[in-house]
What does this fold into?
Amino acid sequence: MPTHPIGTLSRRRLLGTGLATAAAAGLLAACGGGPTPATPAGPATEGPWRWTDGVGQQIELPSRPTRIAAYGDAAVALINFGIRPTQIFHFVDPAQDPSFEGVDIGGIEIVGTTYGQLNIEAMAAAGIELVITLAYAQNDPDNLYYFNDTAQLDQVRQLAPVIAIKQTGSAPEVITATEQLAVALGADPDSELITTARADFDAAGRELTEAAKSGLSVTTLYAEDSGLYFAKAPDEPSLAYYADLGVNFVEIGGDQYYWHQVSWENADTYPSDVVLYSMRDSYPPEKLMQQPAFARLPAAAAGQLHPWKLVAMDYASQARYMREFAGWLSSDRSVT
It folds into this structure.
């Protein structure tokens, strides 16, 4: 069962809160990303490097870290802001995750491809100075995303501090927090890479707003053997932002954070014109259509099923997906 669309609850837990904030004076919360390639973090600067992360941890290092290990989504975002991590760990092989489409990770060492598994020896050998992961709504510093337990987290912290980027609120908040971190790690907020991508992000948002005028209703979901999990748009930053732009998400009931589970027999509980299905460890469309109740959904019957890619929280990644989404809202038809 999922806790966040990146994986399944059997392998993960919901995590915590807090927007990363820049501790160093003068960090700018503006600009976007574009054409020039990312370079390794750095160079290291003289004097201490300080950071307060999304769960309130206050970190101080002797100088700006340059050897970074990052969770996949954070790594993609950092690369698109101009910071290239030394290592990546992810819940799956990055080659199998559409979040990495068009992202050059050549030369970056992969130190984990299953949730909770890390090659700590390789991290030690690389001299990792900073580890970056994510944080969801039930996080605290001792319960961070991707780590199986406090013991594993403590083992990694013997190598380097572990910080988290908050994944709650609306996408622009998360993107700004990630950008602030990238700038603190040496990214240039006035670079063509960032300014071009931010402008494109704004343009893609306008395109999505225009497409959303179709009024088509949308549901987003994850599916596995135990049933369907409908995502609640206000609890997912990207969906919350798309809703702010005018997308008509069906209101999902239930008391739990992020998801509402239904059995396969009740898969038609939330009819909509469009269904976005998770591409992360979830049933593909052909398997969804084998479930009779799901096949009765108006969107399913009309063939209006599209991938929910859960792309990284940076301007370039979000702009690319918003344009895809806008295309579906423009070409699909009302069936409810």
Q: What stands out?
A: The first strand starts at residue 39 and ends at 40.
